[in-house]
Design goal:
By secondary structure, the protein is mainly β. The protein has one domain: TolB, C-terminal domain (Neuraminidase). Helix content is about 5%, strand content about 45%. A hairpin with a 2-residue loop joins strand 9 and strand 10. The chain is globular.
Length: about 300
């Protein structure tokens, strides 16, 4: 009986020691802190200079709805969050060139990768597609091995890692097109004279894009081979979608506004089937993923 009682006491002591090692100190238990909010997208916020629509701040939106400034006012043209959520890829005007660079979300470590516009990562973050003059460019994520492919006038590229989508003009034909990463096999999948700003679905099978009927600009989805066209929004101004965590974020104007300006454009979200339309930002000045005066064709 003495041996059994000793064994029970030793077991109890071991349990208490384990509990102490799991967070109690000096008899006071410590509450486990929740993880920090996750960064969900990067965007441009107009700086507020009167009538100056060329200067913006780079911001990052977090999952708790708060935003932080990554980079101060400059002539940025686009911003996109890296797949790992820790780096912002952006383009900006540095006379006489448009350049592509990265910066950490804490504002440190800015690095210029090369010349170009509107860069986007492949889903695995290993490569970047971008607009180089009026051609399609591809580079490694560190800026190495940059190559430019001539496939006609090609603007605002986006990629699922296998193909690239963008607005392309080739002779008399223009519209939403796809092309292989090496520039081969260009295919028009939706003809339109208006610029499109494509983004791929999470699984890479669908392209979301903005285009105009001549009166209103709306967000559509279409299969990457040109099938199953679906209109997702129905109001005057909706463009430049991105996809994060199977949610579409895009730039639009609140439907309640009868008159609006560039600064009325804010960021909204919607599900891939067109449901759950939500206004995400509500600032007095423009919020978007690219500048409101986008460049295409010989920037």
């Amino acid at each position: 009986m003495g041996f059994l009682r000793c064994l029970l006491l030793l077991t109890a002591s071991a349990v208490m020691a384990a509990l102490a090692g799991c967070g109690s100190s000096g008899g006071n238990s410590q509450t486990k802190q929740p993880p920090p909010p996750t960064n969900i997208f990067a965007y441009l916020h107009r700086s507020g200079l009167p009538s100056d629509y060329t200067r913006y701040e780079i911001m990052v939106m977090r999952s708790d709805g708060t935003s932080t400034t990554v980079a101060p006012t400059a002539q940025y043209d686009s911003a996109v969050l890296a797949p790992d959520g820790q780096t912002v890829l952006f383009s900006y005007y540095n006379p006489p060139n448009y350049q592509i660079a990265t910066i950490n979300v804490d504002g440190t470590g800015q690095k210029v990768l090369g010349n170009g516009l509107y860069p986007k990562y492949t889903p695995d973050g290993s490569k970047i597609v971008y607009q180089s003059g009026q051609w399609l460019g591809v580079m490694n994520a560190d800026g190495s091995n940059a190559t430019v492919t001539s496939v006609g006038e090609y603007c605002f590229p986006s990629t699922n890692g296998s193909i690239v989508a963008g607005w392309m003009a080739n002779g008399a034909t223009q519209g939403l097109a796809t092309v292989n990463m090496d520039g081969s096999n260009p295919q028009f999948i939706y003809p339109t004279a208006y610029f499109v700003y494509p983004a791929f679905s999470t699984d890479g099978s669908t392209v979301f894009f903005g285009t105009s009927s001549g009166f209103d600009e709306n967000i559509y989805s279409i299969g990457s081979t040109g099938s199953n066209l679906l209109q997702l929004t129905n109001s005057p101004v909706n463009w430049d979608p991105i996809v994060t965590n199977n949610k579409i974020y895009f730039v639009g104007v609140p439907s309640s506004l009868q008159t609006w300006t560039v600064d009325s454009q804010q960021i909204f979200s919607i599900n891939p089937d067109g449901s759950d339309l939500t206004q995400v930002t509500n600032d007095a000045l423009y919020d978007g993923f690219q500048t409101a005066n986008g460049l295409c064709l010989n920037p």
